[in-house]
């Protein structure tokens, strides 16, 4: 299990330590005093000891202002898993940060997130819906110019038309740039032809039309390829915790029917525009944007690429087969069962 909510403050602390020597010394001091901080799952304790106290200790010694970005908080996990994280961000402790440190959180307005943060006096909430349309278009145009401007067949007119077509959707602009840019996973056509393709996409349901265009380009139009695509995507979106591609492959090798033991890598290797964990094998495989998940499970939107109901029998069968083959006594190789996890030296990688 990933338990992203348990890793977020440790990750932030590591990032700050890499960038600022004063903070690095303060963090090293905290870890030297209490070794259990390296593995604790207590989010409030992580915030206090790994973030707040080291920052306050080095206040005045850090150079410049610090902005900590927590992007897509809504995608950190199911609602119960982020409850403690939200309580920390909304607490009075979060208001005790040094004056040169701020936290920027982005998220869709899910009820639990909106309720927790809107009630905190130190949180300033801004909705993108309230921003002027011209401001959004300017930002998107700058992004597109940066990504596509160097291409030979793309000039100011094409950049402007792409920004207008995006309709304020950054995710559509990202996908459009990936689709047009050569050397990516898009297989067919020149830069000019791919640009013309996105310009001809229907205006209604822009993201859905873009998903359709990308999948049409990377998934062969035959029944076998479509069946395998649906099966693999069912596996990805049905697991409670996202799995790395090697784990997906191993699980699929234990599916009961031979026809379901298709090559996961071959199907996913051309889908890095839509999924994480394809080019970076250290990351779990998951949709880069939550809208792609919604697209796949809605037959009216995905049509040919609708994944259908997940085959939980296959997942259960494969999970039990792996447990039967690999589960063994003292699988972590611990020397004693009388110690708690925090008391076992170097237990982090094993437990």
Automatic annotation (TrEMBL):
It comes from the Eukaryota. Keywords: Repeat. The keyword Nucleotide-binding does not apply. InterPro entries: NPHP3-like_N. Residues 6-108 form the Nephrocystin 3-like N-terminal domain. The keyword Lipid metabolism does not apply. This is Nephrocystin 3-like N-terminal domain-containing protein. It comes from Pisolithus tinctorius Marx 270. The lineage of its organism: Eukaryota, Fungi, Dikarya, Basidiomycota, Agaricomycotina.
